[in-house]
Amino acid sequence: MTIKTLLIASLAIAGLASCGTHGPEGTAPKAPIQLIPMPARLSETSDSFLLDKRTVLVAATPADRKTAELFNEWFHSLSGFELAIADSGTMNAIVFRTRPAGEKAIAEGYQLKSGKDVVTIEGDDEAGTFYGMQTLIQLFPLQSATAYWLPGVSISDQPRFAYRGLHLDVCRHFFPVTFIKKYIDLLAMHKMNTFHWHLTDDQGWRIEIKRYPRLMEIGSRRKETLDGRLEDNKFDGKPYGGFYTQEDIQEIVAYAAERHVTVIPEIEMPGHALAALASYPYLGCTGGPYAVATKWGVFDDVFCAGNDTTFQFLQNVLEEVLILFPSEYIHIGGDESPKKRWEKCPKCQARMRAEGLKDEHALQSYFIRRMEKWLNEKGRKIIGWDEILEGGLAPNATVMSWRGIEGGIAAAKQHHDVIMTPGNFVYFDYYQSQGKNEPLAIGGFTPVSKVYGYEPVPEGLSAKEASYIKGAQANLWTEYIGSPEHAEYMVYPRAVALAEVLWSPGERKDYDGFLERLKQHFPRLDKKNVNYARHVFEVRPTVEPDGKNGVRLRLDTKLDGGKIVFTTDSSAPDAAAISYSGPIPITKTGTIRAIVLQDAKPYGNEYQQAFVFHKALGRPVTLPRAPHQNYNPGAFTLVNGIEGVKEFNDGQWTGYSGGTMEAVIDLGDSTGITRVGLNYLANREQWIYPPKEVVIAVSADGKHYKEVLQRKDPGGYGIVRLREGLKDVKARYVKFTLRALSRIPEGAPGEGEPAWLFTDELIVE
Q: Cα(527)–Cα(533) distance, rounded to whole angstroms?
């Protein structure tokens, strides 16, 4: 036995950690390299590096030494010991080196090489060295040991997008400093570089402003909090509050900077201002009285745009904000700002006349432009939600496009920088599973697969216009999220998927490959005590046309060793249930239930779905007018046998923002029809209204139609199932026409906005 072989054997006995068995003499065991985000370029080499207690971390500059210290902090948590840090060395060393300023470099790029004697991380800048260190950490197995084999690799990497963000709302619910730091740690671990901190809103003012103490005394507290859904209108009766001192904020900003995370504060204006108005009523159009909001939604009271004192207040607030946050950008909100108070406010109307503003939208633009000019004079830039486009965009503003992608497209075409954050892809307060045991969420349905499938650059932009898409961000609004554990559950692993979307080359996206790597990544989240959701390996259902006269249900799981069993009689599945071997035809009305078994034990949530069997099942559907992009699951969902749920979190509802919805079903042949119907949703608190009119008509040739159902103002609340029995009717085509309420009525949430129309299963029997 050679000395080298003897050394390897001794280390193995002492606790040499690896991901596989020992290879040939003097080499490391081979195991798949599973990295998230996937690097731009990665190749494996035959060499490997043996790290033990004699290994030295080499860092010659203060910045590189800080990166080495952060690595050591992580390594100590894994192994129980730290490595020495030196200024030089190339043998049995891990070298952290940032290229000198002036050398050709790619922002945040790095190269990582692992060989027999040395591991070298060379960053194109300090952030690049830090991200190379994060990749190095993922090359380690997670067992505690006295020595580790690292695989031989050559990695050259850089991000696809410059802006890679994660947002947190601390106004609806307050989160402690320790959690904010953990949030930033996890963000940096996944090579995201921006923390958007939503600090002020109707339900609470969360930042200490020394010049205005009532913001903390009054604005940071509310008398109680909504308990349950908005429409239930129930409250917990418990006072709630909290704010971050300026010392807290300085600590957090410094902590983030060490991890190359920029903290962008959001100070909302001109809307979402009730907490500020409750503290200083003279800032509003009516003078109050105001109270910190105890429920969610959009409120009429906003900052008075006709009062110079308003602007002085905001400038004074921002003077202190600018000292605390060195970020280039300050987020000023600009979203969901009703104009009702401005329309009746003498000061606002006088301002409009004095400035030659044609309407209240132009007044909002004046408001934003005035604040932007002041911030620009201070050397800062603004970011605002896409409503800042209304009335004309401020000259140097960056737009966050949240109401779909249209705002981002409009801003990019005007050559303004854009951060994409569309609700239907990256709002992590949406449901992520259709499981029956999910905690209450605001609505919608955004599973990991949908996040991973998101493409931040919209189609239709020229190359120059596309260059203004600087990146994307996920948002966590916390109306229904009251604890750090719940927040983590909603964010992870969806944030992991988004991190790869924003970092890795778009052409390398592979969802199945991502899931394989995610299996290895979950233990790393476990190591950090992250309360992540595990839905991604549960039963994955797909309902599809069967190619004949109906639909079938396909089930899948990515869980290694997982076995799917199911029932079709509504009974609970167990080890004795039917083993899944292929698509299940839907031949009758009933409920299918399925579960993944691992080692004969259930894994994760049970899948349970009720199906309605009818003659239109799986038939072709034509929609002359496309649904709104946020609620366009495809025409097939209107005839797939699944009725949408009231939480509208299941991807079944077809939604229109105003206008008319029309759908034509082709039954294939002329057939007898005994009943027709449809489902629609009414939830006024969410701006979803019953149709003004419903018409169902039938035709033999698709040209000449006869009405068989006509209802004006059918009304109702929740899921409304409209049905009509027919006699002596034969037809091939059935046309459904629903006319939406044009505008939401005065005094209702969303007043003046187009009403949403949600339709689901179209029934023909």
A: 15
